[in-house]
Specification:
The chain is of the alpha/beta class and 251 residues long. The protein has a single domain, classed as Alpha-Beta Complex (Spore Coat Polysaccharide Biosynthesis Protein SpsA, Chain A), CATH 3.90.550.10. The chain contains eight helices and nine strands.
Length: 251
């Protein structure tokens, strides 16, 4: 079974090499690796070219942001299963894609996801926040829940049937897509209770208070679009509690 992994990148010469090495170090070998660069000018392209013999496909051209780049990668993918690995991120160990491929040997399963840890940008072994997920049930999105998107793997046919990232959102595009697949269209997915991805701290959506407000407004819109009834006060409260627990949670 071929697994396509897509990395979207723009001017990330500091970390994209770690991301690429994390992918190339996987024990599972039937991988199609696609890199979509947005026109980097900082040395990122030189790093990509260093590994280009081991990268299945790569392009470098202007895009309309992260999710537009991801959509380009999905359009290029030929694997049965598609995953997305951010340029700042790495897989937690070299067995991650072997676990993923094992899940998809069950032909009734169309998606899976697991746990994620936020780590210090300079020390990937120093865990700052532990995002532990759970098995999906209807109603979870109403409570501010969402799987960690970098751990979300889906069969390519699901994208073909239900669509890719909606670029009308300024942020929260990933949650909209997961709402659509899991809640609206009832895609059968399984939860893997293991850490699959290490994410460096400092995501765009959490950099300042204004972005947090904007993200929540977009999530309310996504809920309405996907027939999920979200009540703002309770949603925000439960989301805050869940976020606090991630800083105190242990494996």
């Amino acid at each position: 079974m071929k697994v396509s992994i897509i990395t979207a990148v723009l001017n990330n010469s500091d970390y994209v090499g770690d991301c690429i090495q994390s992918l190339l170090g996987q024990t599972y070998r039937n991988i199609e690796y696609i890199l979509v660069d947005g026109g980097s000018t900082d040395g990122t392209l030189q790093i990509i070219k260093k590994y280009e013999n081991e990268i299945s496909k790569w392009i470098s051209e202007p895009d309309n942001g992260l999710y537009d780049a991801m959509n380009k990668g999905i359009a290029l993918a030929t694997g049965e299963v598609i995953g997305l690995l951010n340029a700042d991120d790495v897989y937690a160990d070299n067995m991650v894609l072997k676990k993923i491929a094992g899940v998809f040997t069950d032909i009734s399963i169309d998606g899976c996801y697991g746990d994620l840890v936020y780590v210090d940008k300079y020390n990937l072994n120093r865990i700052v926040r532990y995002w532990k997920s759970c098995a999906y049930q209807d109603g979870l999105f109403c409570n501010g829940w969402a799987p960690p998107h970098p751990t979300f793997f889906v069969r390519r046919k699901v994208y073909e049937k239900y669509g890719v990232f909606d670029l009308s959102y300024s942020m929260g595009n990933d949650v909209d897509l997961m709402m659509r697949f899991l809640s609206k269209y009832k895609m059968k997915a399984v939860y893997i209770p293991d850490i699959l991805v290490k994410m460096r701290v400092g995501g765009v959506s959490n950099r300042n208070f204004l972005n947090i407000v904007r993200q929540n407004m977009e999530l309310f819109r996504a809920g309405k679009k996907n027939d999920i009834k979200i009540f703002p006060p309770g949603f925000i409260f439960r989301k805050i509690i869940a976020r606090i627990s991630q800083y105190t949670s242990k494996q």
